[in-house]
Amino acid sequence: MSKILIIEDEAAIRRVLKKIISEENDSYEVFEAVDGMEGIELIKENDYDLVLCDIKMPKMDGVEVLQYGKKLKPELPFLMISGHGDLETAVSTMRLGAFDYISKPPDLNRLLNAVRNALDQKELVVENKRLKKKVSKNYEMIGESASINHIKEIIEKVAPTEARVLITGSNGTGKELVAHWLHEKSERSSGPMIEVNCAAIPSELIESELFGHQKGSFTGANKDRAGKFETANGGTIFLDEVGDMSLSAQAKVLRALQENKVSRVGSDKDIKVNVRVIAATNKNLKKEIEEGKFREDLYHRLAVILINVPSLNERRDDIPLLIQYFTKSIANEQGTSVKSFSKKAIKLLQEYDWTGNIRELRNVVERLIILGEEEVSEKDVKLFASK
């Protein structure tokens, strides 16, 4: 059912509009407001799919209703109703966010086409927002344990904001998954997500990698090159294993966060950047600060929100779900049938000491699928899991 609100001070015009719209489609439910003030109150209290709003009204005119209504419900489409003398104003309301305008007296076909198009657009906007909130299957977070549900709740609250996030946890726990969830559920999801593994880049090259360089700034710099911060402009940069970054690179990252600008190696020119920073580490950064290996001011800039990802040993209840997920995904990758695991096999895997966390579990599941029987048994786990 599409809920449509008509805001019009002339009762005769309200009746005509309501009759035309109601008779066009029995899935249209039409409501009325006699002036702009009443219209705003109804918009506050109800969820409408479309508003038809007159421009010239007492108490509050249509332009004010449009501006206020759009602040309350940005996705709500407005069709403005204009008299002959209001045409210029009606056109200007398009710049303020109105979907379209209808002249008085309303032309039947023009009115109904505008209503249909406005409702279609609303549906598209809502669908796009819903899809934005869905996370790619490559980065699903599997688990229903209390600790994982807590992380999911934090992500739902934090993702739509611009807050920087520091993700901590041991290797293989899924810190990268959390970072991707944060990006894909954010308002920046249509922009790039650039990942930088700070531990994998030699310390002498990390600054060039992050901030770019000018041709000739060092041996091997044969051309100008944009850094990861520039590439991530409008999106998210994920600094994985940030605890392994050199102190000089840390100082430049701190400046980028403070001033939203970077400069390439070998250049004094500032380049403005608009990025959200998410960082992750398997180190105890407070201990690193005490030992002089990590800047305390950078830590406080990065750790606006802290998310600690638990080890697999701390969330053993999730292991059956993870086994089921890995079994299906590995079968899809290899083009084979899905193998099952016996209850005793799963129980044994739940008791295993997972020092390598989820990454290790996936490797073990793959090994058992390849080497085990059609139904992976307790015997298969004892034979192959620990090798």
Write structural notes for this entry:
With 387 residues, the protein is an alpha/beta fold. The protein has three domains: 2-132, Response regulator (Rossmann fold), CATH 3.40.50; 146-310, P-loop containing nucleotide triphosphate hydrolases (Rossmann fold); 313-384, Helicase, Ruva Protein, domain 3 (Orthogonal Bundle). The protein contains 16 helices and 16 strands. The protein has a five-stranded parallel beta sheet, sandwiched between helices. It has a five-stranded parallel beta sheet with strand order 7-10-13-6-14. A two-stranded antiparallel ribbon has the order 8-9. The longest helix is centred in the first third of the chain and has 26 residues, at 108-133. The chain starts with a strand and ends with a helix.
